[in-house]
């Protein structure tokens, strides 16, 4: 019998029961909650007279709606009345049910997928859910993490279980060494370009090979975060010494004797050498250059030396239609060089790229330079209060401010523009976020997804440029 | 949850691939703390020419007359025909809430994004996967015939065209059972409470740190 994949091991160790039709009930160790997808779940519990199964398995923080400008006045000073109600509703629900919440001005508040790992609230070998598709991020920790809808948030609150169906296994191997200036973000954008935005549908993707073995936890989180942009609900990286070192001393990580016991179990969280995958994709690291999306789906991506595609070169009618729509929306022309795209705004942040390493990468590029005259605004939004503090201790905030970028309070910010940070109609943005969908960053806004280093390079030159020319 | 057994309604064709959840319901409408009232903002950026705001009346907003749901022949549509990877993007359940609130009972596409697909079943909305060529045929027939209606028979797992042609679709047994009977998942899972407790007991021995309280 073939060995087990990491996904198989995680799934099997959480199986409560399998139903006759092949669906399974799996146990969920942790749920992370935010203000957008939880209010209707709490309301559902109240209406049905149900209590959470295990209150202390949950952790919450507001992130999507919070302002990133000065906010010491608290929730009452949130300008948008609807946003204010949503943040207050999370506070009230967590207070009522007794769930630990890092409120807006707690120094541990942050984007759910940045806050939860840095607290050690999600551990290797555990299962986690959150009403947010980017929960895939947590697979980088060697945890089985699912993004779920609000009905499922309510289901997990009430039962500590999720009804699911076992996925297929896909291995994406990237071997060799990444070139200078090529980061985790470029790797995952390249992967999405290769397998397509639905290429991972139905699969749990394990990222393996030299590149991921030597990648930092921050980088691994960036990669797993965007598994969902390739259609996969789950992205995973096997546990190794880098993972274990990351957890040591985190607030909710096990301590003392339990730490040793946990570590010895975590070391087994790798796919067996004889495990069989349903699909394998192999990529050579040397083929990856800094990436830029030109269109309105993350799969519409090319290397910085490339150009906007020409629909005439495509045969599939649905694809031609997609390219034409994207060109029109983005205000680009076929065969235009990527380096000729002029930008209006720059956004460095989001659950994809707002960790300390991302901020260091960006600061290295802007240091001693100035934001270009055509850039209306360049935002740097750290992923959590703790990331912000660390960056300030390292002096990164001063580098950004001196170069003319804005240094903000933590939150989701311009990734999806539910708070006041947004693009104007027709504006082009170099963004380190994860989705370039129409209207995502603001009505009529035009998003180009890039790495933090590439966004920083765009900020100081006003257009896309190969970051390798600046470092 | 609404039951779904048999449904017949006008089909509306949304002929583009990768329709994402931001397109189905833009983010400014996610600020609501309710489950209802999203229908008027379904496909807001495709449907209207201006930027919509939550709590704003949609009467008098400039309509994009080219958009399929604004065409008189598709008024009252309850079956949406779509292309591959429908519902990709975020996990927002506001997407099926908006489709349901607008009046759709069923979406037919060659493929769906997984989270969206799951979310539909929790809300009595039936997502049906048919083959590309079957969708091509339905798109063609819808374009050719004003008032084109499709019937969906969940019990028999059939999409039935006006000429009586039957197209079979598959669906998980558990999901079908829940939809046919309008059952609430939580109630069903709580029937397994003893299994859940037994699992917790066993797991606590193996990995006690997973049961440390977050507080």
Question: Can you walk through the features of this model?
Answer:
The complex is a heterodimer of chains A (471) and B (215). Chain A has 471 residues and is of the alpha/beta class. Chain A folds into 2 domains: 1-287, Aconitase, domain 3; 291-469, Aconitase, domain 3 (2-Layer Sandwich). In chain A, 31% of the residues lie in helices and 17% in strands. Chain A has helices spanning 6-12, 39-48, 81-97, 112-118, 150-159, 184-195, 210-213, 217-225, 241-247, 256-266, 317-330, 356-366, 385-393, 396-403, 452-461, and strands at residues 15-18, 23-27, 30-33, 58-60, 100-101, 127-130, 144-147, 161-165, 168-175, 203-208, 234-236, 279-284, 291-293, 301-303, 345-348, 377-380, 406-407, 428-431, 446-449. Chain A has a 5-stranded parallel sheet with strand order 5-4-3-6-7. In chain A, strands 17-16-15-18-19 form a 5-stranded parallel sheet. A 4-stranded parallel sheet of chain A has the order 11-10-9-12. In chain A, a hairpin with a 4-residue loop joins β1 and β2 (23-27). The mean pLDDT of chain A is 97. Chain B is of the alpha/beta class. Chain B has a single domain (6-171), classed as Alpha-Beta Barrel (Aconitase, domain 4). Chain B has 8 helices and 7 strands; from the N terminus they run βααβαβαβαβββααα. Chain B has a 7-stranded mixed sheet with strand order 4-3-2-1-5-6-7. In chain B, a hairpin with a 5-residue loop joins β6 and β7. Chain B is globular and about 65 Å long. Chain B starts with 5 loop residues before the first strand and ends in a 9-residue tail after the last helix. Classes of the chains: A alpha/beta (471), B alpha/beta (215). Chain B: Belongs to the LeuD family. LeuD type 1 subfamily. Chain B: GO terms for molecular function: 3-isopropylmalate dehydratase activity. Chain B: Pfam families: Aconitase_C. Chain B: Catalyzes the isomerization between 2-isopropylmalate and 3-isopropylmalate, via the formation of 2-isopropylmaleate. Chain B: Pathway: Amino-acid biosynthesis; L-leucine biosynthesis; L-leucine from 3-methyl-2-oxobutanoate: step 2/4.
């Amino acid at each position: 019998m073939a060995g087990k994949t990491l996904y198989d091991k995680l799934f099997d160790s959480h199986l409560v029961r399998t139903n006759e039709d092949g669906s399974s009930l799996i146990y969920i160790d942790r749920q992370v909650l935010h203000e957008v997808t939880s209010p209707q779940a709490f309301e559902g519990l109240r209406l049905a007279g149900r209590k959470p199964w295990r209150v202390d398995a949950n952790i919450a923080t507001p992130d999507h709606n919070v302002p990133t400008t000065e906010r010491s006045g608290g929730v009452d000073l949130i300008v948008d009345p609807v946003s204010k109600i949503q943040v207050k509703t999370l506070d009230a629900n967590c207070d009522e049910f007794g769930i630990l919440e890092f409120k807006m001005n707690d120094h541990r508040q942050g984007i759910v997928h940045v806050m939860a790992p840095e607290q050690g609230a999600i551990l290797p070998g555990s299962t986690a859910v959150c009403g947010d598709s980017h929960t895939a991020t947590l697979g980088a920790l060697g945890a089985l993490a699912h993004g779920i809808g609000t009905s499922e948030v309510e289901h997990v609150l009430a039962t500590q279980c999720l009804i699911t169906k076992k996925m297929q296994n896909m291995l994406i191997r990237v071997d060799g060494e990444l070139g200078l200036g090529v980061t985790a973000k470029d790797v995952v954008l390249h992967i999405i370009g290769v397998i397509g935005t639905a290429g991972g549908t139905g699969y749990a993707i394990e990222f393996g090979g030299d590149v991921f073995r030597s990648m930092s936890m921050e980088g691994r989180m960036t990669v797993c975060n965007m598994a969902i942009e390739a259609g996969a609900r789950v992205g995973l990286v096997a546990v190794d010494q880098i993972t274990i070192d990351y957890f040591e001393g985190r607030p909710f990580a096990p301590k003392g004797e339990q730490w040793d016991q946990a570590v010895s179990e975590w070391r087994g969280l790798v796919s067996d050498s004889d495990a069989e995958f349903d699909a394998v994709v192999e990529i050579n690291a040397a083929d990856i250059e800094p990436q830029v999306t030109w269109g309105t789906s993350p799969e519409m991506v090319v290397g910085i030396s490339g150009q906007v595609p020409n629909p005439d070169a495509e045969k599939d009618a649905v694809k031609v239609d997609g390219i034409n729509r994207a060109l029109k929306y983005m205000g680009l022309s076929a065969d235009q060089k990527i380096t000729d795209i002029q930008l209006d705004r720059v956004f460095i942040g989001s659950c994809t790229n707002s960790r300390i390493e991302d901020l260091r990468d960006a600061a290295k590029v802007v240091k001693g330079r100035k934001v270009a005259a055509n850039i209306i605004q360049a935002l740097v939004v750290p992923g959590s209060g703790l990331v912000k503090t660390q960056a300030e201790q390292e002096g990164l905030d001063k580098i950004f401010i001196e170069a003319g970028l804005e240094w903000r309070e933590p939150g989701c910010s311009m990734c999806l523009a539910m708070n006041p940070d947004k693009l104007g109609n027709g504006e082009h943005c170099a963004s380190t976020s994860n989705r370039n969908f129409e209207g995502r960053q603001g009505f009529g806004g035009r998003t180009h997804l890039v790495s933090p280093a590439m966004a920083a390079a765009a900020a100081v030159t006003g257009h896309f440029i190969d970051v390798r020319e600046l470092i | 949850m609404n039951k779904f057994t048999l449904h017949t309604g006008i089909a509306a064709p949304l002929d583009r691939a990768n329709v994402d959840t931001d397109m189905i319901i833009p983010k400014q409408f996610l600020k609501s703390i309710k489950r209802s009232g999203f229908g008027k903002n379904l496909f807001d950026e495709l449907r209207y020419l201006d930027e919509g705001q939550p709590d704003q009346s949609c009467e008098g907003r400039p309509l994009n007359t080219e958009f399929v749901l604004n065409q008189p022949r598709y008024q009252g549509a309850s079956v949406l025909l779509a292309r591959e990877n429908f519902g990709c993007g975020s996990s927002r359940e506001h997407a099926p809430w908006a489709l349901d609130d607008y009046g759709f009972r069923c979406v037919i596409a060659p493929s769906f994004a997984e989270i969206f697909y799951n979310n539909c079943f929790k809300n009595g909305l039936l997502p049906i996967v048919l083959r590309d060529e079957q969708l091509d045929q339905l798109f063609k027939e819808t374009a050719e015939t004003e008032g084109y209606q499709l019937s969906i028979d969940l019990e028999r797992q059939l999409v039935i065209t006006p000429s009586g042609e039957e197209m079979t679709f598959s669906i998980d047994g558990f999901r079908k059972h829940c939809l046919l009977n309008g059952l609430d998942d939580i109630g069903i899972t709580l029937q397994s409470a003893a299994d859940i407790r037994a699992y917790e007991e066993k797991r606590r021995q193996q990995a006690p740190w997973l049961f440390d309280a977050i507080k």
